[in-house]
Design goal:
ABC transporter involved in vitamin B12 uptake, BtuC, globular
Length: 263
């Protein structure tokens, strides 16, 4: 439960930062290929029979490698335009998806269930809840100290620059903080979808506009959502367990549709 709360909070916080970075409510933590890079590296390790600590390390390295590659390909104009970085991330995610499908096609049959659970999110192997909670606290405090700059940055880069905000360093800080949070979660729990997209957007619809309130609320609401989803995943068809990413989508989609119908 502690690991679920920390992972959910980190994903929601990373989603809020990504949505501010790209000024788009559809942005989410895996937009820049972090999930694809982690998945490819982790599945390659699983396919050859490596133990979980090695698989987790490979996932973390693969996630950071994907983010570094996206930054190298599309980050040169980040001070003025985020579109090249966004396009680089989308293309990398598509490429990683094709390679993941290739690894799954070639992997031994007996290892496929564990590989599929990793791709859909699995908290069973999250063995460092204290470190995850410490990372969530540190990331939330760091992001909240940037709240005033993020509020101004949402207007437009030109307005932010005219009001004294260092646009490029702030954007790179958002990129690094969201990327590190996402990489840490993927390394511990696989690719848990929908939390980073739904929670920040839902909170904004509910009136959490300023980042000083939005970011801590994302950490709390994201953690609570993933704890609920993980509890249901372990109990709905017990003793069998469902992938937690399936439950986050089943909970989140109706909630988002209901929120979108609100005036």
């Amino acid at each position: 439960m502690a690991a679920a709360f920390a992972c959910g909070g980190l994903l929601a916080l990373a989603g809020a930062l990504m949505q501010t970075l790209f000024r788009n409510p559809l942005a989410e933590p895996y937009l820049l290929g972090a999930s694809g890079g982690a998945g490819l590296a982790a599945l390659a390790g699983m396919a050859v029979g490596l133990a979980w600590p090695w698989v987790s390390g490979l996932a973390f390295a693969g996630s950071l490698g994907a983010l570094a590659l996206a930054a190298a390909l599309g980050g040169r104009m980040l001070a003025r335009d985020h579109t090249p970085l966004l396009l680089a991330g989308v293309m990398l995610a598509a490429g990683f998806g094709a390679l993941i499908a290739l690894v799954l096609a070639l992997a031994p049959t007996e290892r496929l269930p564990g590989m599929l659970f990793f791709l859909m999110g699995d908290l069973a192997w999250a063995s460092q809840p204290a470190w995850l909670l410490a990372a969530l606290l540190a990331a939330t405090i760091t992001a909240t100290t940037l709240a005033r700059r993020l509020d101004v940055l949402q207007l437009s880069p030109l307005k932010a620059a005219s009001l004294g905000v260092a646009v490029a360093p702030t954007r790179w800080t958002l990129f690094a903080l969201a990327g590190a949070a996402t990489a840490l979660v993927v390394a511990q729990a696989g690719s848990i979808g929908f939390v980073g997209l739904m929670v920040p957007h839902a909170l904004r619809r509910l009136g959490f506009i300023g980042h000083r309130a939005l970011l801590p609320a994302c950490a709390l609401a994201g953690g609570a959502l993933l704890v609920l989803a993980d509890t249901l995943a372990r109990t709905v068809i017990a003793p069998r367990e469902l992938p937690v990413g399936v439950l986050t989508a089943l909970i989140g989609v109706p909630m988002m549709l209901w929120l979108l119908r609100r005036p």
